[in-house]
Every structure is written in structure tokens, then in C-alpha cells.
Amino acid sequence: MTSQTESTCSRCGSRCKVTAYDSVNVRENPELKAQVLDGSLFVWECPHCGARNLIRSQTLYHDPDGKLLVWLTYGSEELEERVRAAYGGIPEMKDYTLRFVDDAGSLIEKVKIFDAGLDDVVMEMAKYVTRMELCSSLKDSAEAVSSAPFKFLGIDGADGEITFAYPLDGQMQMAAVGFNVYEDCRGILKRNPAMAEAAAGFAKVDAAFVGRYFR
Ligand SMILES: [Zn+2]
Hints:
By secondary structure, this protein is α+β, with helices and mostly antiparallel strands. It has 8 helices and 11 strands. The strands form 4 sheets. The protein has a 4-stranded mixed beta sheet with strand order 3-6-7-8, with helices on one face. A hairpin with a 4-residue loop joins strand 9 and strand 10. The longest helix has 18 residues. The chain starts with a strand and ends with a helix. The site of zinc ion has 8 residues, from loops. Zinc ion binds next to loops.
């Protein structure tokens, strides 16, 4: 489902008609999934100057086969309240993973995590652990790393090495960890049922979520 909005180009100031996706169902429109993953679904190109601008509109990503529903709300508590009231307790949603995210990058990351057959709560914990380890080894930039947003990039190799990306001094850095880090975190989650409970239903599972349990 799309809607038309008027947006102002960030470079030349032109007012343009922009088509935004209110919802994407990747079973009905599998071709849109590539546009979600490469981020182009969230960008509009100015016909006057060619600048690429971010579309800041709320989008619902629905993968009925993967039973994943991610709502890009841009932090709108009003929308999140409405969604919880309308969708909470629908039997068809019982087996679903339901998530709110604040930005397009986080939506893309969720899709990547679930496509890889991984759990996003465990992944947030693995990020937390990786960030802490980096902080203790990188003495000079420890403070910058401790607040840097980490993103899951991918998992590869027979041993399932996990790669994260994070910004430092204006550059993207990579951190790779063994799959054992993920497995250790999965073990910690099993011993903390309150975390799994908090992630049930529509939840925002991010660094702040994990930060409420680890200090
Ligand atoms: Zn422009």
C-alpha cells in the first residue's frame, strides 16, 4: 500500500510528490524485499537535482511466511499505542515476532536477523557483549565505542562468524565475533525468562532494551 506525500528536497528545496510505502507484504510483493534490504524503499530521488532524500514515513513490514511484523514508527508513541490496542491478542499473530523500530536502518537490520534464522533479543545481547569487549581492548576510543550504535551486518562461513558495523570518528568499523558469543547469549536469555517475556508482543528490542537488564 502506498500513499502520496509532498516533501522538500534537502539539497535544492524543491517541493516534490513522493510515493511512500505505508505497508509492505513480502509474500504478495516479493520484489519489494530487495528494496527494503538495500534501503531504496526508504529514499526518494529529487527530479530536479538528483539528491537522495530519506522518506520519513511510517511503514509496516509484513513477512507472513517468516511470521515477522516490523513497524517503523519513528518513535511515535501515539502510533505504538494504537497498534498495541488494535493488534494485541489477535490469534493469527500468536506465533509472530512483533517489533517497533525507530528508523529504517533498524527495520533493515531486523529483516536480516530473522532471515538468517536468528533471534533479535540474543543479537542485541551479543552486540552488548561485543561492545564491552571492544571497549576494554580499545583504551583510547573506549568512550566513543561504548555509545556507538552497532548493527548486525551478516553471518557467514561454516563456523557462523557474525559481523557487526559501528561508526567511529566518522568511519564505519567492522567487528567480527564467533558464533559462540551468540550461543553464550542465548544461554543467558534462557536463564532470564523476564527478558523473553518483555520481548513478547510488540516490543522495541534495541540497545536500550538490553541495557535495562545488564548494567
Ligand atoms: Zn533537489
